[in-house]
Specification:
Layout: H1 3-13, H2 20-84, H3 95-100, H4 102-111, E1 115-122, E2 127-132, E3 149-156, E4 162-169, E5 175-179, H5 192-196, E6 204-205, E7 209-210, E8 217-224, E9 230-237, H6 239-247, E10 255-260, E11 264-267, E12 275-278, E13 281-284, H7 287-290, H8 293-298, E14 308-312, E15 315-323, E16 333-339, H9 340-343, H10 345-391, H11 406-434, H12 438-452, E17 457-464, E18 469-476, E19 484-486, H13 487-490, H14 495-505, E20 509-515, E21 521-528, H15 538-583, H16 590-606
Antiparallel strand pairs: 1-2, 1-9, 2-3, 3-4, 4-5, 6-8, 7-8, 8-9, 10-11, 10-16, 12-13, 14-15, 15-16, 17-18, 17-21, 18-19, 20-21
Helix pairs in contact: 2-6, 2-10, 10-11, 11-12, 12-15
Length: 618
């Protein structure tokens, strides 16, 4: 009994799921977040790649600078030392003769600031070294303030013994002081630079080492004189490489070093960490002793084409291991380790900036999605409320306003069609239950039936078995229909074959026979389809009309039976009236005159315009 109410209440209770505005806003935000994530990731990767490429270019530029500085350190010295191989100082037999050649050595030092010392070792064990006392290098103990050069000499004295002397010379190469060095003894013939210079005119270069006198790191170049009795050598300090490395570091925490696997660390931005004591002398620190973990990781790498990321103690670094070609006779390498947190600082800052903008954009899009969701949700909620009212059998509820969303409008239109069909069904049911006259019932039912299926018109033919005719009974629409069909001409056999004449007459119509419960043909229902009717809908429409045509056939049969019953009653009454009239000649014709008088009274009452009968309508 309460099915409609229960279903409506159930629908109201089962309101589960998310509101449409949340779904739309969430979908928009998810799409925007996905798009922004892709853009930011690609942007960060592109920025990272660009920064790494820039770091690669800068690191290779640094390597080129260091290589160029190393060449500038050795190539000019090689040219000068080849010239000195022809100098007479190589054949000077005593200190006085050698002092006479000092201007050439001093000029060599002055014209090549990178040279730390020029010296000559003789085959008889004598030795001569001229060193400028530079402000940037450690001063020799007990050196006078006006001393410009230090001359270290090991030569035979009058007694034939080797004697060591340290002489301090002024700018004019005149002695301004002397330091007593009774224990100073130096045999050049035991030094690698002397031993390697075997062939006259061929310049040799030692591995980098720590100069004993000054504590500087450098290399020695040597060449045997063309006279063959002495070897001329030069010390070239590589401290400038360390200065270059300090100035050209890519970031503040970048680690740089020039390393030779056999010699040790040749150059490092902090030179104080390079020197290690060893007995009475010094040596270069190894990379392990330097204790820089990223450089330790790089020392076993081969030459890399681009910075390669690696991890040290949980931190990411980018490393390069490049050859140092300035020292041709060594296997020195340039190790460069750049911390990722500094190298990618700009990319990370850009990413953070993009995240801030993305958050702002997401908020803006969220608000936009919320507003759009509200607008769309309003129309959907109105439509849902309308459908809920229909479910509660409130068919007079006001439909919602037209929406901006096509699907909502289509759903509203389909629901309106359904409501219109229900309304027409109600009208058909009401007419069938209240209207007893067949000639007044058929036009109303046909009209509502045509409108329920969105047809353009329709017609009902009823079967007249006595005359073998299909008589026109009801029409809806502007179509002009044939008044009748003769069954004897168009019904030679089966009942359905008789419908061919009607079907041929009215193409584009849904033609349905009307049968009573005994399968007797009562008539024909024909409904003209709308031109825009979809071909896929026609089978469903035809089945729907067949189910309705059965109801109409039953109603027609009922009305016909009622009319037959009425005719039977009237016939019985007439028989009785005639029997009564025939019994008395005085009352003869009374039963016929009374209905005529009653009809005349009704007609007269209908013409009254005032009084109690003014509103009467027969």
């Amino acid at each position: 009994m309460g099915t409609g109410r229960v279903s409506g209440g159930t629908m109201r209770k089962q309101r589960k799921g998310l509101p449409i505005q949340w779904l739309i806003a969430g979908a928009i935000v998810v799409c925007v977040l996905a798009m922004l994530s892709i853009v930011m990731v690609q942007g960060y990767r592109g920025g990272t790649a660009a920064l790494v490429a820039a770091a690669n270019d800068s690191a290779r530029q640094l390597a080129m600078v260091l290589n160029e500085r190393a060449r500038r350190l050795t190539l000019p010295a090689q040219s000068v030392i080849r010239v000195l191989a022809h100098d007479r100082i190589a054949t000077a037999g005593n200190l006085e003769e050698r002092l006479a050649q000092l201007p050439a050595l001093a000029e060599t030092l002055n014209s090549n600031p990178m040279l730390s010392a020029v010296y000559i070792g003789y085959d008889n064990g004598e030795f001569l070294l001229l060193r400028p006392l530079k402000s940037g290098t450690p001063r020799i103990a007990a050196a006078p303030d006006d001393a410009i050069y230090l001359l270290q000499s090991v030569a035979f004295d009058e007694r034939g013994s080797l004697r060591g002397r340290w002489l301090f010379l002024g700018e004019d190469l005149q002695m301004v002081g002397e330091r007593s060095t009774p224990d100073y003894w130096f045999d050049p013939r035991q030094r690698p630079w002397y031993q390697e210079a075997e062939e006259p005119g061929r310049v040799v270069m030692t591995d980098p080492y720590v100069f004993f006198t000054t504590g500087e790191v450098g290399v020695s170049l040597a060449v045997r004189s063309h006279a063959g009795s002495a070897v001329i050598g030069m010390d070239a300090a590589v401290d400038d490489l360390a200065a270059e490395m300090r100035d050209l570091r890519l970031t503040s925490s970048t680690e740089l070093a020039i390393v030779d696997a056999e010699v040790g660390v040749i150059a490092y931005p902090d030179p104080d960490r390079l020197i290690r004591g060893e007995g009475a002398g010094f040596r270069l620190a190894s990379l392990e002793e330097l204790g820089v973990a990223p450089l330790l990781e790089l020392q076993h790498w081969s030459s890399d084409s681009s910075p390669t990321p690696f991890s040290v103690n949980g931190e990411i670094w980018y490393g390069l291991n490049l050859p140092l070609r300035g020292f041709e006779q060594t296997d020195a390498r340039i190790l460069i380790a750049i911390p990722a947190w500094e190298l990618l600082r700009e990319a990370q800052a850009l990413l953070r900036h993009q995240i801030v903008w993305a958050a702002g954009l997401v908020l803006a899009v969220l608000m936009l999605g919320w507003v759009l969701g509200l607008r769309l949700g309003r129309s959907i909620r109105q439509l849902a409320g309308w459908v809920e009212a229909l479910a509660d059998f409130r068919f007079s509820a006001t439909p919602p306003m037209r929406s901006y969303v096509r699907e909502v409008n289509e759903l509203q239109l389909a629901t309106s069609h359904m409501l219109r069909a229900i309304t027409h069904f109600q009208a058909i049911t009401s007419c069938l239950s209240h209207e007893m006259q067949l000639e007044r019932m058929l036009p109303v039912v046909l009209e509502h039936l045509v409108k329920a299926v969105d047809g353009e018109g329709g017609v009902v033919y009823l079967c007249d078995e006595e005359n073998d005719l299909l008589e026109l009974a009801a029409v809806y629409g502007d179509e002009r229909y044939r008044k009748r069909f003769t069954l004897s001409e168009s019904l030679p056999g089966e009942v359905y074959a008789a419908l061919d004449a009607v079907r041929e007459r009215y193409p584009g119509f849904e033609l349905l026979p009307l049968h009573d419960r005994k399968s007797t043909l009562l008539g024909v229902l024909a409904i003209k389809r709308a031109e825009q009717t979809d071909a896929n809908v026609q089978p469903y429409l035809q089945r729907f009309l067949q189910s309705l045509s059965g109801t109409l056939a039953v109603a027609i049969e009922t009305r016909q039976l009622f009319e037959q019953q009425q005719a039977l009653l009237e016939a019985i009454i007439k028989v009785l009236a005639h029997a009564v009239d025939a019994k008395s000649p005085y009352t003869g014709g009374h039963c016929e005159r009374v209905p005529e008088l009653a009809e005349m009274l009704l007609q007269q009452a209908a013409t009254v315009s005032s009084g109690p009968l003014r509103d009467y309508q027969p």
